[in-house]
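The material for today's practical consists of a large collection of protein records. There is nothing in a record beyond a sequence line and a structure line. As an example, a complete record with its sequence and its structure tokens follows:
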Amino acid sequence: MRHEAMLAQLFAAPPRLGDLAPDEAALVRATRSWVVAQRHGRRCPLDAAATHLGTPAAARALHLLLASVGAAWPDPVAIAPPCCAHLTHDEATLLGMVLAAHRHGRPVFDALLCEMLDADARDRLFASASLMGQSIDS
């Protein structure tokens, strides 16, 4: 039965942006806007993120999280364009990291990433994901 559950999860449709809670959707939109601004240089990435997150402090927390992810991730991070209705696997993982760090604690966070990242990388990501979670809850 375990293999069937794993296969079902592997082939499940990616989450839809419209199905997320408002604060979760704002985090995904802010991430997408940050990436577009960073890539094209037409707008400050922090300003782009703050538009969706509501505060400069939350935008700074996202900036720190994305810098940490960029340094730790074994492959390039896949972020969808702002118009995309579905989350990429990496976007869902980023959201899961923030929710796990902020709402469920270190064991759940580690379980999410233990097969992909070593303990040192998870330490840095846990700190920045926790800060991001606090920023969107305040």
